[in-house]
Structures are given as structure tokens and as C-alpha cells.
Specification:
With about 150 residues, the chain is an alpha/beta fold. The chain is built from 1 helix and 17 strands.
Length: about 150
């Protein structure tokens, strides 16, 4: 029984390092001490996403990085959050929206700066910058820039 407890203890302690190492092999732009839950959903081109040091991304979060997304240092992204860098075109009403393509904007990127906490089920839309020391409250939809040292709800 003691051996099983030791194995579980070391597994829990090392799993983040193992996952981070594996992810660094896939994404070349992941910083050190990056921690994520195994069910992160990445819908991106891998070269357009940069995650810096000491970031955490939790369960069932979606990152849609067809445009540049920079997640800087010490960012915590809670469960079920979405970061979306594209939009759908809807130019012709005679064609179903599912058959029309994404609009990929090249003018601007999403930046999430240092010490930001994005709380449960928040959505970050295209062209947004979230400045240092900010909190994005649960169930928020961020469509414009968030100032430093602020709470967006």
C-alpha cells in the first residue's frame, strides 16, 4: 500500500513536467513550467501560438490560433475558456454559413500579458490585448482591450 501511495505521489508530481516536455516537442514556442490539462483543445496552426513561462491552461479550453496569439508569463486560463482569433464570413445569404470560410484577419493579434487570470468559461475574441495583472471574470466575453490592474466582468 505504501508503494502504491509513493507511485501515485510521484506520478502527480511529475505529470506536469512530462506533459510540458511532450508539448514542447510539438509546439516550438512553449516556455518553461507550462502546465496544462490533458484535454486542452488546440485548433490552430502551431506556428501562430506562443506560450511563455509559467502558464497554466485547464480542462477543455479551446485555443483557435489561426492568427497570432501570445500568452505571456504567469497566465492562468481556467476550465472551458476559449481564445478565438478568427471570424466567419457571411457574404451570401443563399449559401449556408457552414460552407463559407473563416475570415482570418492579418492586422492584429491577441496578446495576453503577464499575471492574467482568465476565469471559468470566459471567451477572448479576436483583436484583444489583456494587459498585466488583470482578471477576466467567469462567463465574460472580451471584445475590447482590458487595462492593466483591472477586473473585466
Amino acid at each position: 500500500m505504501l508503494l502504491i501511495k509513493k507511485i501515485i505521489f510521484w506520478y502527480k508530481r511529475c505529470i506536469w513536467k512530462i506533459r510540458s516536455y511532450i508539448l514542447r516537442l510539438v509546439w516550438s514556442s512553449v516556455g518553461k513550467n507550462f502546465k496544462y490539462n490533458s484535454s486542452i483543445m488546440d485548433q490552430s496552426s502551431l506556428d501562430k501560438l506562443k506560450i511563455w513561462d509559467d502558464c497554466w491552461i485547464w480542462t477543455w479550453s479551446v485555443i483557435n490560433a489561426y492568427n497570432w496569439i501570445n500568452i505571456w508569463k504567469n497566465v492562468l486560463i481556467s476550465d472551458y475558456c476559449a481564445i478565438i482569433s478568427t471570424d466567419h464570413e457571411y457574404k451570401d445569404i443563399n449559401i449556408p454559413i457552414s460552407e463559407q470560410w473563416y475570415t482570418i484577419w492579418k492586422e492584429q493579434e491577441i496578446n495576453i500579458w503577464d499575471w492574467v487570470w482568465i476565469w471559468f468559461n470566459a471567451v477572448i475574441m479576436k483583436w484583444v490585448t489583456i494587459w498585466n495583472n488583470s482578471i477576466i471574470w467567469a462567463w465574460s466575453v472580451v471584445t475590447k482591450d482590458v487595462d492593466s490592474n483591472s477586473i473585466y466582468a
